[in-house]
Amino acid sequence: MSNTSPGSSDSPQETEAAALARLYDLDLVDDPGDLDLYLALAGRTGGPILELAAGSGRLAVPLAVAGHAVTAVDLDSAMLARARERARATAAKAAAKADLDLELVEADILDLELSAAGTFQLAFIALNSLFLLATRDAQRRAFLTLARHLAPGGVAAVDVWLPEPDDLARFDGRMIFEYERIDPETGHEVTKVASARYDPTTAVVDLTTIFEEGPPGGSVVRWIRRDALRLVGPDELATMAADAGLEIELIAGAYDMGPIRPGSERAILIARRP
Ligand SMILES: C[S@@+](CC[C@H](N)C(=O)[O-])C[C@H]1O[C@@H](n2cnc3c(N)ncnc32)[C@H](O)[C@@H]1O
Prior knowledge:
binds S-adenosylmethionine; 274 residues
């Protein structure tokens, strides 16, 4: 894999990380629809707000634009660079909100001990990011990080996808076509295919994603990413929250916060630090 442009001082690894961060945002041009949930939670709790595994600031930036003090933590500097740029571009558009109260922290959430620990009114892990902590122990530690950063009475939220048996049956190593779309940032045509293998003994999905991109009719660059995702259901979410000392308020099955039911696509846990 090589894509270093002439004159660029970035290493191949930095170039690849920047491309994968950009393609992460391309994945999410189909809005998952979760922002209103976090705006509503933030409206209820007030700030400061902590997002763990915040990525490119898809949620952290609009929460800051809404006037909340937000700390966004991620270990991927390329994702945080995009969050920084998103904040800059958003603030430039809304001149009145030019001074966003947004702190971006490059750190592993498992060992996180911010100086503001114990003061956050809302702390959350959005959109399956918990899965990327690919062992049960790491996921439990992420819950502990949430809990120790909350103020007493503060609210934690964790959102995960609940695959159907049919979804898991497709995770047998076959190549699955995901999409072909134009990246609005580069004008490149991007094709995404993925292959996943699910191990029921560990609940881990070994996911390989292949992106091919290039100008229409031009030569193509290929980017490959490997992820291990440990799936977690609602019962285990509840156990991890309780083990971290959190009191469960509810587990919803969708972003409208309707109750979880058989067939629900998501489990969204809301818990409170006593
Ligand atoms: C699926 S993205 C989600 C980004 C964002 N929460 C959103 O909803 O758009 C997951 C993010 O988790 C980050 N991540 C994975 N493991 C992490 C860890 N141990 N500490 C901090 N960030 C981590 C990745 O770098 C990635 O940016």
